[in-house]
Structures are given as C-alpha cells and as structure tokens.
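Course assignment 3, question 2. Fill in each field.
Student: A.L.
Task: Predict the tertiary structure for the chain below.
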Amino acid sequence: MTLSNLETQVDSQLTAETIEEISIIIAARNLTPTVMSLDFLKFGGIVAKDWELSQQPILNPNLAQLHFKNGINITAQPRTITISESLNGKNIGEIHAPQIAVRYIEKLPHAEYLGLSFSPKILVPFPNSPQTPRKYITETLLNSGVWKNIGQSPVQAGINLMYLLDRCQLTINVAEARLHHEEMPRLTALLFTGNFNYDVSETKELSKAERITEIANNWQEDLEAFREMVKDKFLAATNENFGQLPEENIFPGTVL
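Answer field:
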C-alpha cells in the first residue's frame, strides 16, 4: 500500500467498516525468487492444490508474484518473501497466511534466516467526515504550528512511531488514505500500519528455523495487541466524533 496517497479499489458494497490486512515478511540471506513457483508451493504442500491464481504469475531472478483468487498474495524478492491476506469477513481459523509461512519454513529448514516481521494494517474510513483523518494527524498526533500553513491546500501528513516491546521492536505508521470506486464518491480514511520486527540472527537456544516458526505461530498475540493499540490508544486519544465506530468490537470476525 502507498501510505500517503493510498488509492484502494473496493467493491460496490463498501460500507464504513474497518478494513484489515496482514502480511508476514520472512528474511533470509539465501532466499531467491526463482524457487517461488506455483509447482513448488503446491507440490510442497505449502498451499492447497486446488488454489487458483487470479492472474498470470511473475517469476524472474528479481521478483516472484503469485496472486490467488482467495485473496492470498505471495511476493518474493532477493532475501525476502511476503505473504499477505485480507482479514475482512474471516474468523481466525479461516486465516491462511501464517500457516503458509510456517509450512514454507518447514520445507526450507536450512535457510539462513535473519528475521520475521508481522505487519498488520487497519484502515478506518470516514465517509461522513472527510477532514477527520487529516485533522487527527495534524491536530491530535502533531502539535499545531505555522508549518501547517504552507502552500495552497491543507498539509497532508503521516507519522512514524517506534516502540520497544518486551518481545520485539514495533513501528507504527499513521497516514491519511483515500479509497475510491468508480460508482462511489471517494472516501478519506486513516491507515494504521504496524511492523512487529523480530531478529533471529543471534538465536542460540533453538535453530533459526525453529525460532522463526515459533514467532510465526504467535501472530495472533501481535494482531490482537495492534488492534487494541489502534482502538484504545490512538482512536480514543481524540474528542472527535468517530460515529461509525461502534462501542463493541470494531474488528469484524474476531473476538479480542
């Protein structure tokens, strides 16, 4: 996603619901895109044999991309593989990306793994208050100042925050975003992007493959922590009327 000028295609039934996506990024010194073929993924049991691609795959020495009809996207570049999935309308048991990551690591246990990043994204639309995302960033997260009044239109802003947790380093980006569809007016939104960054290069007690598998299997803890941060720390930090955010769980399909 492009953070400052996000333009997301959404279906014609778009409502003011929170939109969620997760990505798992595996880093290793010797990962190469050319091994990330559909045959490798299916015959290795990493993805189901009946999964179908939504478009022609890309496979070359610098990039491999596979987009499946069920919403799973796999992208490989030198030293990294990223597995992404939309969560909307899914229960925890219906989420595949972490399982794909674990099965991939199991098939390549001797890779020189460096780390894993778990990256959740939460997009909060504001159909009835288009100025709220910009005001939230420039007036709630940032202090007011003359720097806001340069040029002919209101300043657009994004902010990066870094936290040191007990288990890893966390970065959070907050940015204004836009969603559009041909048959609907453009909506403004707040995009919260997290990265829980785990370094396994110095792992001693377990093999790197075992440690990175352990991290991947713990994805629910990070997802729930991120959801709580967005809801209870960020969105609760303003007196603005977030009317479309109900008092109950705003994250569809999952119980916090």
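Instructor remarks: Residues 10 and 181 are 6 Å apart (CA to CA). DSSP finds five helices and ten strands in the chain.
Grade: pending
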